[in-house]
Amino acid sequence: STAKRDRAVAESPQLWPAYIVDTLDDPLPTEKSARHGYLKQLTFLTYMLRFVTISGPIKPKKRDAGRGDYQQDAAKLQIPLSAWDQLLAQYTEQDLRDGMPIPSEEDADHGGAQSARAPKRLLTRTCREKLCLHVLTLALVLRDGRLPCAALASSLSLTEEKCAFYLKQLGCTVDAKHRAGGEGGRVAVLKLPLTFPKLSRGAPASR
Questions:
Q1: pLDDT tens digits along 112-135
Q2: Residue 178's Cα: distance from chain center in Å?
Q3: Parallel/antiparallel/unpaired status of strands 68-70 and 93-94
Q4: Which residues lie across from 62 on neighbouring strands?
Q5: How far is Cα 95 from Cα 104, in angstroms, rounded to an integer?
Q6: Quick count: other Cβ atoms within 10 Å of Cβ 122?
Q7: Hey, is 62 helix, strand or coil?
Q8: First to last CA, the chain
Q9: 39, 51, 139, 148: least buried by Cβ within 10 Å?
Q10: How confident is the model at residue 5 (pLDDT cuts 50, 70, 90)?
Q11: Cβ-defined contacts of 121-126 (< 8 Å, 24+)
Q12: Average pLDDT over the chain, rounded to whole?
């Protein structure tokens, strides 16, 4: 029910971002393969929005006798380890302050040794920006190239203005005349051919 759904969002906003819940109300593609692809993309977008909430060093996976491979953040955010490993590889960097040696290929064959020696990882500022851009890109794909600038702002801990800036970098036109679901605000529209902002040359050098 709507009340149950709203309660889940209020109690666990990290797990159920409002944007994802709202998107579930959209009609699904009628063709089977298109519908399957859409749901896969929406599921991974959910994992990305959960992953972006992480702060601080990310501990490596551990081998648990009863549960197999286990990672506390992945379990808390309900992200399957297959998706977790992909997110970790794409959007984090090794924590150089950790001082732990990188596991060798030989260690990779022994889960316990690898877990004990693997360095922690960080969602750095650069990695977080990359993740935000990929989230907005996937959201544009799911919404047929049209996205309210404020739709994902809170989930990404960004202002509407910053989201609009990122969407422009992705080639969108941001029109203040559009209205997002009757609530006002700007909407980014991806039009072909793509038009990207010109690179700034910065301020002229002083003499």
A1: 444 445 789 999 999 999 999 999
A2: 26
A3: unpaired
A4: 70
A5: 17
A6: 20
A7: strand
A8: 67
A9: 39
A10: low
A11: 121/57, 121/58, 121/60, 121/88, 121/92, 121/93, 121/94, 121/95, 122/57, 122/58, 122/92, 122/93, 122/94, 122/95, 123/51, 123/52, 123/54, 123/55, 123/58, 123/91, 123/92, 124/92, 124/93
A12: 83
Residue type, 64: D
Residues 6+ apart with CB under 8 A from 134: 48, 90
* Cα–Cα distance measured from residue 142 to residue 79, given in angstroms and rounded to the nearest whole number: 20
State both tokens at 165: 């800036």
Distance CA 53, CA 48 (A): 9
Cα distance between residue 18 and residue 34, in whole Å: 24
Identify residue 17 by its one-letter amino acid code.
Answer: P
Q: For residues 166 and 160, what is the distance between their CA atoms, to the nearest angstrom?
A: 10
190/175 Cα distance (integer angstroms): 11
Q: Are 185 and 149 in contact (CB under 8 A)?
A: yes
Q: How far apart are CA 187 and CA 185, in angstroms?
A: 7
Tell me: pLDDT of 85 over 70.
Answer: yes
54-79 b/e (C-beta count within 10 Å ≥ 16 → b): beeebbbbbeeeeeeeebebbeebeb
Specify the amino acid at residue 118: A
Cα–Cα distance, 69 to 136 (Å, whole number): 31
Output the six-digit token pair for 86.
């992909």
Identify whether the C-beta of residue 90 lies closer than 8 Å to the C-beta of residue 173: no
Q: With contact defined as beta carbons under 8 Å apart, do 9 and 21 qualify? A: yes
